[in-house]
Amino acid sequence: MRIVGGKHRGRNLLAPPGRELRPTSDRVRESVFNVLTQGGEALGGRNWVQGAHVLDGFAGTGAMGLEAVSRGASHATLLDNQNIALECCHDNIETLHEDDNVSAYYADCLKPRTANQPCSLIFLDPPYGLGLTVPALQALVEAGWVADKAMAVLEVDRTEEIEPPAEFKILDDRHYGKARILFLGN
Fold first, then answer.
1. Do the domain assignments include residue 127?
2. Which of 64, 118, 130, 175 has the highest CB neighbour number within 10 Å of its CB?
3. How many domains does the chain have?
4. Which helix (H) or strand (E) holds 80?
5. Residue 119, domain extent
6. pLDDT single digits (tens) 131-163
């Protein structure tokens, strides 16, 4: 597992052995960031990463948030409620020397603490099949983590049906193997 673009391109990321975490593959991450940086008509033709304040919920290894910072995001906050995930996040932050630009916290995305600053780009990749995605997004909105006119990128199982919160609209919907990636705007 590695950073696929930006200033840290090619740098390896730590991922624990076994199946406790299910990191987004390099290929899918590259595709997601191509969509986000090139914008396209569906996403308003803008680069959503450059200068963004990023929230990586259910962060796992922190790959999405770290990839965003590598590609020009100003700051990323990584949230996870598994100790092994937080250890990976902290190790990856240290390896990339991104202590000033990336923070990692033990937090439940379904019951998050109040945000210090809203984020313009949100990544959510909860465990598949548990119905956590929409409740987590709604909880993060209510806790002030989601800025107005933000982009939320959700990774769910390919077969999972998603009805986004009322303030969000599905802008793009893509499939990569078992993963379904939804790009939502508010």
1. yes
2. 64
3. 1
4. strand 75-80
5. 24-185
6. 999 999 999 999 999 999 999 999 999 999 899
pLDDT of residue 18: 61
Query: Are residues 16 and 104 in contact, defined by beta-carbon separation less than 8 angstroms?
Result: no
Q: What share of the chain is helix, strand, coil (3-state, %, to 5)?
A: 25, 25, 45
Contact 79, 41 (CB under 8 A): no
Answer yes or no: is 13 within a domain.
no
Q: Residue for token digits 């109040």?
A: 114
Any idea what the CATH number is for the domain that residue 98 is in? Answer: 3.40.50.150
What are the tens digits of pLDDT across the range 19-52? Answer: 555 667 788 889 999 999 997 788 888 999 999 9
Residues composing the chain: 186
Residue 132: CB atoms within 10 A of its CB come to: 18
Q: How many CB atoms lie within 10 A of CB 36?
A: 25
Q: Is residue 64 part of a domain?
A: yes
Residue 60 CB contacts under 8 Å (≥ 6 apart), including other chains:
21, 22, 23, 80, 85, 88, 89, 125
Give long-range contacts, CB 8 A cutoff, 24+ apart: 16-25: 16/84, 16/88, 20/82, 20/84, 21/60, 21/61, 21/82, 21/84, 21/85, 21/88, 22/60, 22/125, 22/127, 22/128, 23/60, 23/61, 23/63, 24/63, 24/64, 24/125, 24/155, 24/179, 25/176, 25/177
